[in-house]
Design goal:
two-stranded antiparallel sheet, 245 residues, T-fold, alpha+beta
Amino acid sequence: MGTVVSFDVSADDASESVVRAAINAAVEWLHHVDAVFSTYRPDSDISRLNSGGRTLAECSSLVGQVLDLCSDVARETRGYFSPAFAGRVDPTGLVKGWAVELASDLLVEAGVIDHCVNGGGDVRARGCPEPGRDWSVAITHPLQRDGFAAVVEVRDGAVATSGTTERGLHVLNPFTGRPATRLASVTVVGPQLARADAYATAALAMGDAARDWLAGLDGYEALAIAPDGTGWSTSGFTSVVALPT
């Protein structure tokens, strides 16, 4: 996936062996997802699908599942999220959040309830780090190295950010084919990480139109930072540090 995934686990009710086995299963799952969906690996299902070396029916069933979800999200985002460009299939804007969400599910199924999985800034948090305290998720500032734009507290939810911090102007407006430049980053907080991930990507592509669209999403809140360092958020977005103005 071209990024780092970390696990933060609070597991007083689970043995060390159970926790290690659960994390190992989650890591194995993430490596499998990378082998299927990586656009950098010529032997992945997605790469072979794009090269014509494999049909969709010959790919892992996960490919069809993800592309169906991508189609749903494309409709929800008015086409600003697109799993294809220039004739190539690329669900990158959704698949990382989807994979991290399912890695979190594996931990829950193993009885490791209180945990936080961070996949390159896309976070799925469940339970709490200790009684009476939520998980604190820092949102990287796209214009300040080692700086934070905000810190949000999450008990059972997802936080996803799309921006220029790690990969520069990598998100394209699917209607123009040009890099999205009106926003430096968009963070979306909500119940599902796959959708939060895709919604953040779509909002970055929307630019100025993203504010009204994000405000209309049910169950999701957002923070956006502009290239000049100013920011705005939807009405329900809350942070434990001051937001950019």
